[in-house]
Amino acid sequence: MPELPEVETTRRGISPHIIGKKITGITLRNASLRWPIPNDLNEKIQNKTAKSVERRGKSLLLAVANGHVIIHLGMSGSLRIMQNADAPQKHDHLDIHFGKNLALRYNDPRRFGAVLWTDEPLVEHRLLHHLGPEPLTENFNADYLFTRSRKHTQPIKSWIMDSKIVVGVGNIYANESLFNANIHPLKSPQEISLKQYQTLVSEIKRVLSHAIERGGTTLRDFVGGDGKPGYFAQELNVYGRGGLPCLKCNKVLTEKRVAQRSTVYCVECQR
User: Fold this and answer.
1) Are 68 and 180 part of one and the same domain?
2) Active-site annotation holder among 55, 56, 58, 80
3) 174 and 87 in one domain?
4) 38 catalytic, yes or no?
5) 58 has catalytic annotation
6) pLDDT tens across 6-48, in order?
7) Pair 91, 80: CB distance under 8 Å
8) Which residue is catalytic, options 111, 205, 261, 268?
9) What's residue 220's pLDDT?
10) In terms of C-beta distances under 8 Å and separation of at least 24 residues, what long-range contacts does 37-40 make, across chains too?
């Protein structure tokens, strides 16, 4: 499933090709995604100029003068820049055309993503209004986490993966950040000190930033190809290494299921 670094890598990959260009129309091959693609989408965006492509959580926001196209990649979606003449492949559900030659193509084998339209303020949209702060901004800091955590008793790993608390800390990044911060993933949020939260916030920002950098390095651009960043080609300390030696202390790493997610940690380093 695409997580925040993968979505941000996608945003950076497609933006230079479409910002400032006029949308000349769409080709809709299959509207049946998680929610139907609006049947008047072409009417809303045709002859409008793409002003920006932003990201909120794991949604991409294509801004035009009269509103936003909201694109969520779901479990298996991807975006890539194509020539209009390039033959569509299976699961290529939508093209947004820019001029005679260029198209932004949406592919989604499992069809659990979404392409929606809104002309209302983004903060009021049902996919966005409940989201916590972006992890790479100043609004996400130790004081914020410490204050929010005082009455919470579920495992810290599940808590920081809650998009109402902070967006984009997926399973891989939660495992890695907690290991780097020496925090046991089953510890409750209210047990963690302000000083520990300072370390955890720093590690979350570092791990996510590194993943974004690696995605941008692994995939040179989003022209042709499959539009998917190589985000698994990164160095991981604990995720996927259950039963192997800890890279810090050499003790065997423990793996458990927490909230139905694989959780790997070191009982020596993360007490």
Assistant:
1) no
2) 58
3) no
4) no
5) yes
6) 899 999 999 999 999 999 999 999 999 999 999 999 999 999 9
7) no
8) 261
9) 47
10) 37/93, 37/94, 37/115, 37/116, 38/116, 38/117, 40/117
